[in-house]
Amino acid sequence: ENEFANFIGVKYCSLTNSGSSANLLAFMALTSPKLGKRRIKTGDEVITVAAGFPTTVAPIIQYGAIPVFVDVTLPTYNIDCSQLEGALSHKTKAVMIAHTLGNPFDLKAVKGFCQKNNLWLIEDNCDSLGSKYNGHYTGTFGDIGTSSFYPPHHMSCSKDTFIPYLDEKGRWKADRIEQIFKLYVDKPKKIKVLSFNKKNKVDWIVPSAILRHKLGSKKMVKIICQHGREVEVTEDHSVFVLNNNSAKIIPKQAGSISKDDYIVATNQIADPGEIKFIDILEHFTDKKAYVSGFSHSNLKYVKSADYRWQFKVRDTLPLKYLKHYNLEEEALKVGISQSRKIPARFPVNQDLCRLIGYFIAEGSYQNGLMFSFNKREKGLVRDVRNIVKRLFNLQISVREVNNSVTVEVQSKNLEIVFLDIFKIKKGAKNKRIPWFVYHGNESCIKSFIYGYTKGDGSFRKRPDNTNHIDVTSTSKDLLNDFQYLLSRVGISASFYRRNVNKRKKIGSKWTVSNENYTLSFSGYVYKGKSIIKKNNRERNNISLQIPLLNVFRKFISLSKKQKVISKKRLAKYITSNTDLHSLLLGNVSFLKVRDIHRINYDPNDYVYDFSVPGQENFYGGFLGVFLHNTMGEGGAVYTNNEQIKKNVESFRDWGRDCWCSSGKDNTCGQRFKQQFGELPLGYDHKYIYSHFGYNLKATDLQAAIGCAQLEKLPAFIEARKRNWAKLKAGLADLKNYFVLPEATETSDPSWFGFMLTVKETAGFTRDDIVKHLESKKIQTRMLFAGNIIKHPCFDEMRKAGEGYRVVGELKNTDLIMNQSFWVGVYPGLTDQMLDFLIGLIKQFCKEKKNV
User: Fold this and answer.
1) Which domains are seen in the chain, by residue range?
2) At CA 170, angle to CA 168 and CA 174, rounded to 5?
3) Phi then psi dihedrals of residue 695, to 5 deg
4) In the chain, fewer beta carbons within 10 Å around the N or the C end?
5) Where are the beta strands (DSSP E) in 600-719?
6) What is the DSSP pairing of strand 66-70 with strand 45-49?
7) 3-class state of residue 641 by DSSP
8) Is 26 within 8 Å of 47 (Cβ atoms)?
9) Which residues contact 635 (CB under 8 A, 6 or more apart)?
């Protein structure tokens, strides 16, 4: 509310759940007895127009006041101010009208009329947020303004949804969204999440909000795709799919997803930024550690001369005395007592990443690090020995028992590094890949893949001559980590479950087998101490494929039996269509839906969202898919009049007389000291009702989305203006066919749509061109109600000849009802889309002219 008020330039703003509710509250606020003689009463008149949205008029009629309808003018489609005096009577109390499709009405004339006759002015600004008149925002000229906001589509996903992100230090993290909410709900701009842009390129972007709301009566579904990727979402919200007709990436409600759909993912996760070194010194500060190789200038902090001499001779100094050092220039070593010190800084290189891979696969802790290999894996044993020597200058011990080889690195300091700093937990089910591995270059990541899969994996060659590397684990979280790491280097693996938890009796004994899982990827072989591509045909690599849709077959002739094609190959044939070419050159991929089903989810539990400005998507889920945002709506009522503000919030909040916010009590200090109506003295002010009100409060989710929308509003306004101007210029030579819209004098509209009125002499009707455009997938709209008086809701009033009043004939209103329509200027429209629309309209007119 504060941000909105500051943005638009008013004293008070009251948030509500929609623009229509805002109109209702704005009108009802003027019916309050607290306004004395100026209050609107039953039977009083309110001047308005019939050409507009019904909820501008509905509150007037529902209260029992009388709407007085005047006509509009073309080409502004706003109120005909010349009729205001004719509409005035001794019963008139207010004027309530909208700025049509973002075009401000003549505020100078209307406000002057209201001031002259002591009338209230309500500006319905729901379609016009961002429009200006004489340099000031519309909605601020009258006594009350109302607005509506539509958020980007925020996806609602389950609390367990896995989300990769960069923390406030720019470090890769991966947590369940519930945990991220707890950590960053008050500081969402400190992190970055993965998102794809309009060019289908994936990058890190700052979210504007992290949101949550209870599931309530909604249902949750799980969507499972090729390669085992999955996500849990509310069924009335959307995920991104590849449109089968246009090949555009579009949102689609989860409840409408079918097995013919392709979900959008990526196997090209953006580089989070390279980390070249790990500094461990600060992690030893609470462990009574010692350093060697230190600058002797630090000895001055040791009070005892004897100790200073001993520390200098022995080259060992308690870490607490180390004040001056430079890890980039000094070869400091650190460690706890009775354990050989290790470098305080070491490189993130192929050696380190491969060693971590071995440890996650085959490692455990026992007064240091322990690796368990097969007797045939002597090359891996040698590699561990060499890495430990090169990086840490430590020795290993090797024990062979039957077919197994145990490698021990007896270093408590190294255990501290792996357990406390790298966060590799004890137990196979609890291990996770350290954050800095994701920051490694391609060579480092592939070196980790080598180490991990050599330890916990297997290599096989299939009959079709494709190479497969499989890795098996009891931890789904670890394999999830691994797929996200594979996606850093363009690899997509298939996930499947090998065994389930079960008990089995062998002889007289029962054994328990743990559930385990496998990730398998193809097209790579081991070479040296890394992996390289081999027989990695693009047509066999799902991450490099795209479904062979009919729109693609227009550019390339292939057998109908072929269902997919390499993106790279197809791009060679589609250079003339920039949108399709951009899709093929982007780094998103497409996975076919395998299954979708409802899942149990506590209705009192929360579902979560991110708000991602400008792109409205983020990456997450098991193994990774792109998630779209949830739809919510909100509205606002704003004013500079404190009494009106109090009235608005009273009607919004059940009619309460108390102004305390939810969860707040006794802010006036008079909660139990006042007397109202015929209630006893001291009756709880929190439950005093001065109006017959409603419950029209906005939710926290809507408020958060509103804040996010405000940040994007300037860009939305400019895009709408630009799109409207392009349509105006492109259709300028069609004045013989249409009445083209014009902005009101001294106004700067934030256009909501582009209005067209078909002339009587055009040679075609409004219905003709609308049907043509709709057949070409161009959506059109009437000017909302057209003429609200002609609708069924007015049938009884028309027959009775009461309940409303009309000034004149409403000639232009009827013209709009019969001959006008508008097309969108949505900020997401591209120049190519607008050129297509302009071309369609021009071609239609040309064909009609020749008939």
Assistant:
1) 2-152+633-700 (3.40.640.10), 157-267+587-628 (2.170.16.10), 277-439 (3.10.28.10), 540-579 (no CATH), 711-850 (3.90.1150.10)
2) 85
3) -115, 90
4) C
5) 606-611, 617-620, 625-628, 634-639
6) parallel
7) coil
8) no
9) 15, 16, 17, 18, 19, 20, 21, 22, 126, 146, 147, 148, 149, 698
Distances (CA, A) of 49 to 9, 42, 53: 27, 20, 10
The per-residue pLDDT for 596 is: 94
Q: Are 146 and 123 in contact (CB under 8 A)?
A: yes
Q: Under a CB-based contact definition with an 8 Å cutoff, are residues 105 and 10 in contact?
A: no
Q: Identity (one letter) of the amino acid at 599?
A: I
**Local structure of residue 403 (DSSP, 8 states):** T
The pair of structure tokens assigned to 731 is 């259709």
Q: Which amino acid is at 309?
A: W
* pLDDT at residue 657, as a whole number: 86
The answer to whether the CB of 623 falls within 8 A of the CB of 517 is no
- For the record, the structure tokens of 364 come out as 């455990």
With a CB cutoff of 8 Å and minimum separation 6, the contacts of 594 are 224, 225, 226, 259
CA atoms within 13 A on the CB side of 749: 29
Beta strand segments in 788-838, E = 805-806, 820-824
Beta carbons within 8 Å of 285's beta carbon, 6+ residues apart: 319, 320
Question: Which residue type, as a one-letter code, is found at position 649?
Answer: E
Supply φ then ψ for residue 268, to 5 degrees.
-135, 65
Q: Structure tokens of 536?
A: 């990695």
Alpha helices in 45-106 (DSSP H): 54-63, 84-87
Burial 759-797 (b: 16+ CB within 10 A, else e): eeebbbebeebbebbeeeebebeebbbbbbbbeeebeee
Helix (H, G, I), strand (E, B) or coil at 540: helix
For every residue of 506-531, DSSP letters joined together read: ETTEEEEE--EEEEEEESEEEETTEE
Average pLDDT on 684-692 reads 85
Residue 613 CA to residue 453 CA, distance in Å, equals 39
Answer yes or no: are the C-beta atoms of 95 and 47 closer than 8 Å.
Answer: yes
The yes-or-no verdict on residue 711 having pLDDT over 80 is: no
Element (H, E) at 72: strand 72-73
Q: Per-residue pLDDT for 774 more than 60?
A: yes
User: Cα 89 vs. chain centroid, distance in angstroms?
Assistant: 51
Compute the distance between CA of residue 116 and CA of residue 131 in angstroms, rounded to an integer.
25
**In this structure, are residues 648 and 698 in contact, taking their beta carbons and an 8 Å threshold?**
no
pLDDT at 632 over 60: no
Query: Given this model, what pLDDT does residue 701 score?
Result: 58
Among the residues of 301-377, which ranges form H helices?
305-314, 350-362
Q: Rounded mean pLDDT of 739-750?
A: 97
Q: Which amino acid is at 355?
A: L
**Tokens 């449109």 found at:** 243
More confident residue, 129 or 254: 129
Please tell me the predicted confidence (pLDDT) of residue 663.
61
CA distance linking residue 103 with residue 116, whole number of Å = 24
Say how many C-beta atoms besides its own lie within 10 A of residue 466's C-beta: 16
Average pLDDT over residues 297-310: 94
Does the CA dihedral 154-155-156-159 come out positive or negative? negative
Instruction: Report the run of H or E that residue 119 belongs to, with start and end.
Output: none
Mean pLDDT of the chain: 91
